Amino acid sequence: MSIVTCDLTVSLDGYAAGPNPTRERPFGDVVGTGEVLHSWMFDHAANHEDEIAGILDADAYVMGRGMFSPDTGPWDPAWRGWWGEEPPYRAPVFVLTHHAREPLEMGETTFTFVTDGLVEAMTRARLAAGERPVSVAGGTDLVNQCLRAGIVDELRIHVVPVVLAVPGGTRLFDGVGRLDLDPAGARWTPEVTHLTYRRRAD
Amino acid sequence: MSIVTCDLTVSLDGYAAGPNPTRERPFGDVVGTGEVLHSWMFDHAANHEDEIAGILDADAYVMGRGMFSPDTGPWDPAWRGWWGEEPPYRAPVFVLTHHAREPLEMGETTFTFVTDGLVEAMTRARLAAGERPVSVAGGTDLVNQCLRAGIVDELRIHVVPVVLAVPGGTRLFDGVGRLDLDPAGARWTPEVTHLTYRRRAD
Which chain A residue has its CA at the smallest distance from B144's CA? Predict the structure, then answer.
């Protein structure tokens, strides 16, 4: 069976985003948060080819509503995500939401909106991916929910060497509860330290 | 001039201790917290010789009151720390406190109680260490205070692969505010991942 992977970029103090994301500022209203966290993949891509390839190596994705849109309530059909007309996933993406919406085909990526909960979304992603990996694409709330449910086989944390101190932001591991993982890798670079953890075998 | 180092063992969610430390439970009232965090150095010492040697490589230490004693208020002279009659520091240790106390000589370690604040304690430690390293011995509150003050040259974080989820515990980087560091090392083992960061050059 395919494995479930998850990549998340966080600060030294565990933040993946600041508070109050909007359409204009997906990483919250503390100016520069998104840039500081993701400079490693945009400005230093050549130093991190394997890790970047890993993020996009899945054949299906599960995504939280907040990762697709900062809005709440029924969908604004004009909103088509943050990624332009050619999203980088190039695979089926199952977006968890309480509000139904027709599938959205954008380039090689199809966003399918799932209103039946995490298990249904994960099942559909697994069926779509076959033997290939399924990735939990974020946001952090969904990542934490999946960690709590014990369904992440490989967690790849990209730690940016900055203490962000953005209270009210979203933090990896918040609400996960006690969880033991198995370390499986660590690579440091000037821009970011890549840490790999695996689900502990029962 | 000597460098200022700091070693701290933390969980994946950044906790160095749980809430409500006591004489009997220095790492707080969530049973097992201290054991989970420090098993790597006590039960697997052979896998971590360099890191353990590094912790004790300083020629002087600065320590917070809470690391020497969980009590508050004036000293109980009967309390002589958690380390038995031969503390592992084997060097001068300057304990920051609001309450004066005569120096305490225990084996090769002398605890000197400093009531004039962090700068005074650090100055005395630097004078004692000469060209050799000074270490910030903890607890976490003092570590965070020193990070905020920008006086830690090398921060060595030992990350245990467990989400502890001990709300009210003490967390590395709490209250430090925005801080950029330079990664300088990463080594993973089954028990713990060792990360080294340096103070960013001005």
Answer: A163
